[in-house]
Each structure stands twice: as structure tokens, then as C-alpha cells.
Amino acid sequence: MLNDPLAAALTKILNAEKIGKKEVVIRPASKMIKKILLIMNEHRYIGSFEEVEEGQNKILKLSLLGNINKCGVVKPRFSAKHNAFEKWEKRYLPAHGFGILMVSTSEGIVTQSSAKEMKIGGKLLAYCY
């Protein structure tokens, strides 16, 4: 049993990216993992992905574009106020305006820039650049 499926999924994506694979299969699939992948797809870090039924379980098959330098989860899941995202960007991203932090807010899972625009804080989930 996995303790953190999101961390396992992002690690699997990063490892496949490093060795040059074009496709990766993530299991188990969850709503949170799908939303994180959707955000990464919108920002062109990964290609398209699809959910496939495998018996009782669902898996995600996604294509890789080779655009990820590093991605991972934020542990522990720190709370961040809407005016304090710069502190976390400095900690997890290599440069200002480079990469994304994904945040769980009352409006759903969004990037740090969207959360700043909406003036809402939340829990930090993951980063990607």
C-alpha cells in the first residue's frame, strides 16, 4: 500500500522523464492526481493523458514531452497565505517566474499565480519546473 500516491506518481514521471521514456503508466489514479496532471498539461510540462479501466482499478497513461527538469511534492503540506507565495516560490522554484507551485484551495487545486489573482491561500501540494 502506498503512503503518498501523489509523491509516487510524480516520482515515476520524473524518473521516466530522466531516462527518456515517451510514455508512463500511473497507478492508482485519483481525482487529485488527475487535477495535478491537468495543470501540468495546461503549462506544457506533460502531454495528453487518459484514464483506463484495468479490472476494478483505474490507471492513467500519459505521454511525456521532455519538458520537466524537476517535479515533486511539498512535504509537509504547508499552509500558504495569498500574500506569502513568494517565500514558497523561493524555496521550491529555481527562479522568479520559472515553474509552478500547485496549491489546494477552497476553489480547488490551482497554481500559485491563480491563487494570487483570486486572493486566496491554501495548502501547498506540489511543484514543477
Total helices: the number is 4
**What CATH first level of the largest domain would be assigned?**
Alpha Beta
Count of distinct structural domains? 2
N-end to C-end Cα span: 29 Å
H/E element sequence:
HEHEEEEHEEHE
Q: How helical, in percent, are the residues? A: 25-40%
Overall morphology: globular
CATH architecture assignment of the largest domain: 2-Layer Sandwich
| Percent in strands | 25-35%
Report on the structure:
With 129 residues, the chain is an alpha+beta fold. The chain has two domains: 5-64, Ribosomal Protein S8, Chain: A, domain 1 (2-Layer Sandwich); 74-128, 2-Layer Sandwich (Dna Ligase, domain 1), CATH 3.30.1490.10. The protein is built from four helices and eight strands. The chain has helices spanning 5-18, 31-42, 85-92, 112-118; strands spanning 23-26, 46-54, 57-64, 71-73, 79-80, 100-105, 108-111, 122-128. Strands 4, 5, 6, 7 and 8 form a five-stranded antiparallel sheet that branches. The longest helix is centred in the N-terminal third of the chain and has 14 residues, at 5-18. The chain is globular and about 45 Å long. The mean pLDDT is 95.
